[in-house]
Amino acid sequence: MTTPVLQVDGLRKEFGDLVAVDDVSFAVPAAGSLAIVGESGSGKTTIARMIVGLERPTAGTIAACGDDRSRPARSARDRRRRGRDVQIVFQDPYTSLDPRQCAHDAIDEILRLHHDLAASRRRDRVAELVDLVGLDDRQARALPGALSGGQRQRVAIARALAAEPRVLILDESVAALDVSIQAQVLNLLADIRDQTDVSYVLISHDLAVVRQLTEETIVLRHGRVVERGRTTDVLDDPQDEYTKLLRASVPHPGWKPTRRHIAELRKEATEA
Amino acid sequence: MTTIVPLEAVEVGEVSTRGRSPWQRLRETGVVGMGSAAVLLVAIIAALIGPYVTPSDPNLPNISLSFVGPSAGHPLGYDYQGRDVLSRLLAGAQSAMLGPLVVVALSIAAGVLLALVAAWRRGAADSVISSGLDILFAFPAILLAVLATAVFGAGLTAAALALAVAYTPYVARVLRGAALRERSRPYVAALEVQGASAMSICWRHLLPNLGALIVAQATILFGYAMVDLAAISFLGLGVQPPTANWGVMIEENQVGIVQGYPLPALSAGIAIVLVVIAVNLLGERLFERQ
Amino acid sequence: MSDALLDVTNLTVRLPVGTELRPVLRDVSLRLEAGESLGLVGESGSGKSMTARAIDRLLPAGAEVAGTVTFDGSNVATLSGSALRRYRQQVAMVFQDPRAHVNPVRRVGDFLTEALRLNLGVAAEGARRQAVDMLDQVGIDHPDRRMRQYPHELSGGMLQRVMIASALLTKPRLLLADEPTTALDVTTQAEVMAILDELRHQFGLAMIFITHDLELAAAVCDRTAVMYAGQIVELRESERLHDDPLHPYTAALAAARPDIARTAERLLAIPGRPLSAFEAPSDECAFASRCPFVADICRSGLPPLDRIDSGASRCFRAHELRGRLSAVRS
Fold it and tell me: How far, CA to CA in Å, does B83 sit from each of B61, C161, C189?
């Protein structure tokens, strides 16, 4: 086993009296993929924000590529280096791009920030990235307002990849997309992993998406890990009562929820 | 039960006002907007070249011509000292336009800076800035300007600086709200995660996205500043006679109004009103849809 | 034919955008018997929400409407005054975001009893009792205490139950549910779906359930209408939709969704993006540009919504493709 590219140990976050994240640990190997599953209030987004440095942990450590990032960066250089270790794609494609900046400029800005490239080399690299996420040149020159949700999310993915990160955090990145577009983006993410050795951390409430994209899964409830294991095992044979409730709540052909059944599952999950 | 139902842009496609040339945007403002732009253009040209193209010497008195009406070569007649009114209007345009411009530039610069710092740092910095602005709010602009001229002596500079200070909280308060909203958008977080510096994010992303609001604020303030500065000159605390200035012209010729010679005072007053209305209308038309 | 509770015939709606009128619905027809439930499924821009708004006469100002909506025998477009108010009582709506549709400074109890007291003339104490009883029925514990709370004190799932209670209080005959669970957590969604389904049967209510999720619709709806680019492209019994779809779009939509029970090597994504009604061509099938089964005939004109079996499909090749569509998935 090689050293993990992302290692989180004993992570804890308090907001006043509320414990949002409580003693969460996990590791992601190079080219690996981990899903963090949970409902709202489970602390999954808080974990993502702590990993990328948008929130400061109350306790615990986060190490990416062997470098501790649980304390704020000390220098601009340090901050940029962290940007090359871990990147993130947010949920809402409508607010995650500067409305006054086209895809080409947004990617170019990131390349300037991280890599000392000549103008022509940078232009080639932008074209490569735009091509990688399946956009054409006209779309790359259009302002976000002229792009659909799926196209914007492709821009956000290309922008994140421009830093050549080792870990890409997908914070509900396909949740806001139409079904037909979601499938395109999920396929794209699979292709990108085949072509690079980037690791994914998928934050999601959608178990079907989790199954499609990740190998390992941890299930969070009220900030604590209630189950962990291989994604297929967790979904096909859940051990924890809460995971069973989650699994039973996913619509599928022939699904017919009844109040009694869900109430029973919820009761067992709460008592466990 | 009636409910306001927001229309999803996706159902009918969006009509974006972004990414159009200034000329296209101006044309969309219609007759009112184009007319306002024309008035402003005239005022700006007058401010730039007015002093050099005056038909007569604006400062040469001739008491025998006091309050003499319009005549050939003197379409607006003569003022109380017998000086050519048109020449004084042209000569006075510079200080009348430049004063508000300085006030607007300074208050916008200070307001934007305070708003960005408050929105970026949030927390304690925001509290300090917001409380400071609240205190400043308590002072009426004119009072502050009169105080400044009392301390530093009468003149345009002291009055303009004082007005700039007095207007800053208005700018900062409006922009702080907008900056906070923009700051909380995920694209800003994405840039932070990339390691971009606060300065670069503010300068390259927040500022351009606040641009429309900043310009809208500037147009409103320009009108206020013009009227306030004219009032200060009228009180004798701003531009000093005999230097030509629209505010000064109203003050000098107010006796004419009661004596039945309103034209000299009125022409300066109308010039001020026209410019103020034009700036406000144009600002409103240009940014009402954003 | 006159026994239908709701009859929408050739409904076409255009909305003003800038200086032009853009279509959002194109020739939508559907019928709903009393007590029946219909799913309206589609992606963004398909017109599913617009259909509900057109039925409840909640279209934005300037909308141009052609075709008719008939409720219980009377033409909805001609209703006004007290007749319109009566109609709105009989057609209740539940929205995706309950917080946007409730006054944040009024207590839950006031919100729930308002319509009863003002429109139905129920006395204060009676209205309160009915509201408490209804909160109990939608599965809210301590309804008396909840009545005194403000919306911000309730979670999203709890508030959506309050909205359902409010919708049911005026004893409507038709419920329009516009993505009522999209903003909720999965476990809460399952509960709210169960509540909707059970209470709907208990009250003998007809329902139009709008969603982007075929399986969610199938769980609570007898029939499902699939919409694309402002048109209904397929109408079918929900239980047969998955295994025997009649339109390539329905099959593609089902295939594009990842399966929780199976990891696909690669998802069968539909190329391109969903068209909005105003972008769709008027002289060929709207789905032609993305359809894996496209043939020359598809470009020859607008396909009609043809009856097949007990369902209907807006596809020229529907008969020919029958049985081959569901195979797309495996």
Answer: 5, 80, 82
Residue pair C273/A150 in contact (Cβ under 8 Å)? The answer is yes
The per-residue pLDDT for B290 is 45
Phi and psi of A54, rounded to 5°? -85, -20
Cβ–Cβ of B19/A145 closer than 8 Å? yes
CB-facing half-sphere around the CA of C171: CA atoms within 13 A: 7
Say which range, A46-60, B14-28, B131-145, C137-151, has the weakest mean pLDDT. B14-28
Instruction: Give per-residue pLDDT as tens, B9-44.
Output: 445 554 444 556 778 877 877 888 888 989 989 889
- Asked if residues C180 and C96 have their Cβ atoms less than 8 Å apart, the reply is yes
Among chain B residues, the shortest Cα distance to C47 is held by: B11
User: Is the torsion defined by CA of B145, B148, B153, B155 positive or negative?
Assistant: negative
CA dihedral B77, B82, B85, B87 (to 10 degrees): 120
Contact C259, C266 (CB under 8 A): no
C-alpha distances out from residue A45 to A5, A91, A171, C258, Å: 20, 10, 7, 22
As a whole number, mean pLDDT of residues C148-158 equals 92
Whole-prediction pTM value?
Answer: 0.85
Q: How far is B47 from chain A (nearest CA, A)?
A: 34
The single-letter DSSP state of residue A144 is G
Interchain contact B288–C (C-beta under 8 A): no
Q: How many CB atoms lie within 10 A of CB A221?
A: 23
User: Hey, is the C-beta of A191 within 8 angstroms of any chain C C-beta?
Assistant: no
Flag whether pLDDT at B243 surpasses 90: no
pLDDT-derived band at B64, boundaries 50, 70, 90: confident
Q: Dump pLDDT digits (tens) for B152-165.
A: 887 888 888 888 98
Tell me, yes or no, if C190 comes closer than 8 A to chain A by beta carbon: yes
Which pLDDT score, from 0 to 100, does residue C2 have? Answer: 52
Q: Which residue of A has its CA nearest to B181?
A: A95
Cβ within 8 Å of C, A 32-51: 39-40
The lowest-confidence range among A27-31, B46-50, C318-322 is B46-50
Please count the residue pairs, one from chain A and one from chain B, whose beta carbons lie less than 8 angstroms apart: 70
B192 touches A at CB < 8 Å: yes
Of B1, B12, B15, Cβ closest to residue C88: B1
Whether the pLDDT of residue C237 is over 90: the answer is yes
For A1, other C-beta atoms within 10 Å of its C-beta total 5
Q: What is the distance in angstroms between the Cα of C57 and the nearest Cα belonging to chain B? A: 10
Set of chain B residues whose Cβ sits within 8 Å of the Cβ of C278: 12-13
Sign of CA dihedral A100, A106, A108, A111: positive
Tell me the percentage of chain B whose pLDDT exceeds 90.
30
pLDDT in tens, B117-143: 999 998 899 999 999 999 888 888 888
Arithmetic mean of pLDDT, B57-71: 80
Task: Tell me the C-alpha distance between A38 and A45, whole Å.
Answer: 9
Nearest Cα residue to B168 out of B213, B221, B97: B221
pLDDT at C327: 55
Angstroms from C237 CA to nearest CA on chain B: 27
Q: Tell me if B193 and A76 make a contact (CB, 8 A cut-off).
A: no
List all residues of chain B from 15 to 34 with a beta carbon under 8 Å from chain A.
16, 18-19
Using a CB–CB cutoff of 8 Å, tell me whether C219 touches chain A: yes
Complex-level ipTM: 0.90
- Smallest Cα distance from C217 to chain A, Å: 9
Residue of B nearest to A171 (CA): B186
Contact assignment for A178 to C197 by CB distance below 8 Å:
no
Determine the pLDDT at residue B8.
Answer: 47
Which residue, C169, C253, B179, is CA-closest to A183? C253
Q: Which chains, if any, share at least 3 CB pairs under 8 A with chain B?
A: A, C
